[in-house]
Amino acid sequence: MNQPKYLAIKDDIKNKIVSNVYTLDSKIPSEMDLRDEYNVSRHTIRQAISELVKEGYLIKIHGSGTYVSDGHSKKSSKKMKTIGVVTTYLSDYIFPSIIRGIEKELSRHQYSLMLASTQNNVESERENLEKMLEHEVDGLIIEPTKSNLLNPNLNYYLDILEEEIPLLMLHASYEELDTPFITMDDEGAGRIATNHLLDLGHEKIAIITKSDDSQGKKRLKGYIEALHTAGMSYENDHVIFFDTENRHEIPKKINDLVNSDNPPTGIICYNDQIAISAIQQIQSLGLKIPGDISIVSHDDSFLSTSFPGVALTTIEHPKEEMGKRAAQWIINSIENPEFNRKPIVFPSELIIRNSTKSLNKTEKVVE
What we know:
single chain; alpha/beta; Arc Repressor Mutant, subunit A; Rossmann fold; 3 domains; six-stranded parallel β-sheet; six-stranded mixed β-sheet; 12 helices
């Protein structure tokens, strides 16, 4: 049986490395030059190079080229595998709990953690992806940056997939890529939050949602579906959009909404941070929560019970459990070739506290 072309090319390049035709740290010919040299397709060359990268004979530096590495000798003595974790933020809100869940599970299996954050900035995402690839991490858990927008870094993700590095997306995924993910049921969360207010007799329900992350789009979809099922109309002036760069404008938008000719009796907030900002703005106008306006939030963070007199009704987020499950998924992907790399979706559940009020005469607000 004939050897596949890419394996023959791989062996030939490896021999050139071992015999110092290609010396340590030197740049090998480009994929196009190798294609012409071996008279094969570029895909075949990429297969050969990918195998040599896996074995540690080569290292790819994005934007520069492919270089000879001594990683093959290091890999044999490497005891601990490293998982790269890239989240939008690290030290605030729900992220420490998620990272703690990842770290505990990785440590339990003698894996190390390489951590980075993007601040939801695509340039920072690119830099962190380059660092992770240069470090030759064994797997990646990545929270997408501005997942609702076209991403300029898709080529890095395609390289990750081509090199068969296990990859799990956190909270969302890029529609352009077929990558496994671990998320909340955000569409379901939008429905549940809206239905809660509908069940309490609210007919004028607003939503504050994020336009540059897909979680915001999915929650908006759930909101629209719940209104439609209840026979309610979607009103443009009851939807406040924000993104990473203009979230500071939210208080003014809330002020305009509450003082409009069509004020809501209930508001669904993208997360607990936005909910607290909304409460502060509404109270500054002399209105009460939930007496005048009910608030439903997402994430059940520490903020949900931190505001004096108002405990948020909010969609629960599994936080540490999500981190643990993400780590288990990536470990299984590395250690078990038969592992089914299917997505994980946590069901949405509502925690009812005292930030929502019934407008039905027979109902009372939760104390």
